[in-house]
């Protein structure tokens, strides 16, 4: 049968027993043995050298020996009492049930246990307060992180459509421009403007207009890759950043969106189409992100002037209808 593992209580009791035995051994060495040696030396040597007729010397030696023996006895008793108290404390600490009874004692062990108990109570209370404070601090930190995340998302999101706003689009476009300069990877910008949206706002109201913008936003998100950035540029105009996409790929993308928008059954029943302008690197001559957006905007105006519901690359490029 395997040995049962020792518990902390049994360890305390065993340690107290060992300490008590060591104190008893020390008591024997420091009191009993010296008394025996003193008695032997006195009887064998000291008393034989004293003349019995000299009573003052004889009784003086006996009195000195008596006080010496008494001092050794008192010291031994003190050591024995300390050992008994330490052993008793170890036994009490090993038995949790006795801690309540020991508090009623008036001796040294009771006083010491009461003091230790008060200290432990204070430490436990402070530990609980520290844990509670740490929990509150951790909860506050998490709430602050969530708040910062929500604020950051809010600052980069359009309130009506839920798409990214112009600010976020500009930041990401600048990042992709830098990547293009470093690695010569293609990047394209598509600007889209809704045709006939003003009539929806004027005749049906802004609430219906906002719902139309949300429908268009869903179309753009549904037909765009996750790495692309779809944003509301302003009013009824949208912008899409096509990462790792050449001019030809951007043109195919814009034409697909144009066809989906023109055939989408909007709830208000009015026909809605869209015009598109495209600018790409390295195809277009654009040194900055502003230049690239300006080129796409010029292409968008070309599509508008050409009859709308079109995709335009540049003023000299053939339009897709």
Please name the defining characteristics of this protein.
alpha+beta, 2 domains, rod-shaped, 321 residues, Alpha-Beta Plaits
Layout: helices, strands, pairs:
Elements: H1 8-49, H2 55-94, H3 99-102, H4 108-156, H5 166-183, E1 187-195, H6 197-204, H7 206-222, E2 229-234, E3 237-243, H8 247-263, E4 273-281, H9 289-305, E5 311-312
Parallel strand pairs: 4-5
Antiparallel strand pairs: 1-3, 1-4, 2-3
Helix pairs in contact: 1-2, 6-7
Structure, described:
The protein is 66% helix and 10% strand. It contains nine helices and five strands. The chain has a five-stranded mixed beta sheet with strand order 2-3-1-4-5, with helices on both faces. Helix 6 (197-204) packs antiparallel against helix 7. The model has no long low-confidence stretch (mean pLDDT 80).
SS content category: alpha+beta
Mean pLDDT: 80
What is the N-to-C succession of helices and strands?
HHHHHEHHEEHEHE
Per CATH, the superfamily of the largest domain is Reverse transcriptase/Diguanylate cyclase domain
Largest sheet: 5 strands, mixed
Q: State the helicity in percent bands.
A: 55-70%
Assembly annotation: single chain
Number of domains: 2
How would you concisely characterize the structure shown here?
With 321 residues, this protein is α+β, with helices and mostly antiparallel strands. Helices cover 66% and strands 10% of the residues.
